[in-house]
Amino acid sequence: MKCFSFYVGDKKDESKTTKSVSVQSMNSMLTDREVGRSGSELNSQNVSGTSTESIGRPSFASLSQRPSNLRVFTVSELKSSTKNFSRSAMLGEGGFGCVYRGSIKSIEDPTNKVEVAVKQLGKRGMQGHKEWVTEVNVLGVVEHPNLVKLVGYCADDDERGIQRLLIYEYMPNGSVEDHLSARSEAPLPWTMRLRIAQDAARGLTYLHEEMGFQIIFRDFKSSNILLDEQWNAKLSDFGLARLGPSEGLTHVSTAVVGTMGYAAPEYIQTGRLTAKSDVWSYGVFLYELITGRRPLDRNRPKSEQKLLEWVRPYLSDAKKFSHILDPRLEGKYPIRSAQKLATIANRCLVRNPKSRPKMSEVLEMVNRIVDASSGTASPQLSFRSTMSMESSRKNTTKKKRSNIDLKGGESGWFARMWTPKLLRTC
What we know:
CATH topology of the domain at 176-392: Transferase(Phosphotransferase), domain 1
């Protein structure tokens, strides 16, 4: 799944200096304005009518006063942990670097080792550094069972220059995208898909509504939802996250970044970011769980490449609805449960973002489906015992960035869905 990155609207909002919780003295700190000038992003013409209300929005520096329990690592420690960043320890490669499996000493018991995932940022451009800072700020001060835990970070110098690394809890069962892929040895059963939808909704609800401030994830997608040893789903990769609008404001005007197929149409057009942008992405994800298909798949016939357009004709006829269900499920699902999940997805994907439900409301609806299905569905434990751990050895996927193709973008989704205007990039 490709990512996109370009500017719409007033770029002044990106000029605030972003500071880390524990690394404010680093000489390599960059302002958002400097990042905006890096080669990894493209400028676009301004869109008339884009609000500049949010120029004074709070930055993640405001989180720096909160206590952080992050551990600080040296490069030598992490080299030892990952066998000198050996390819044999590599879990995956993203747009800003590689992720390695490693082990570190437990704080509680130094005689024990704890498995971790170590993300090493590459040297290309400055956007990676910006995301590194954001992850330290966000995950250093928030904690929830459905958010991947950041154990610590490294901002050290060695012979290769400054090293920027992030150390996370290890998620042995990879990403949801891995398991929905046809390459996965065993498909996710329906019960597990419902549990994943529930866990992801819990994570977003926490970010949006359960703290003293709001965080908009901005890059919600199946590859950023990881599964732990017990198959609990957790949101990961907060490098694109933004604080929500200040009190009295309706949105944040910001650079348009994310992943094609998931981004809300009004955000693509105007750069106006709200929590309802995440709600849209969650709706796309629900159809991903239902169908087993990617939101955008160029390898399929042209009429089937865009998931939301492909499912549309099947939703108005109950007799046709089963045609969009993931064939790998082999009919092992309660059709009523799948229809209810699609109904929730449709509410998340309405044209007007103000008409979309809050994530707490979405969670409540998903909870009802899970509760209703718990009596008839196969136990989650049986799934754990049959799944091969080796089939999910990679927990990150390639996230190479490219310009978004806005021709047709998210258009065509129901008669009432938003049809975004074309934006010319230069």
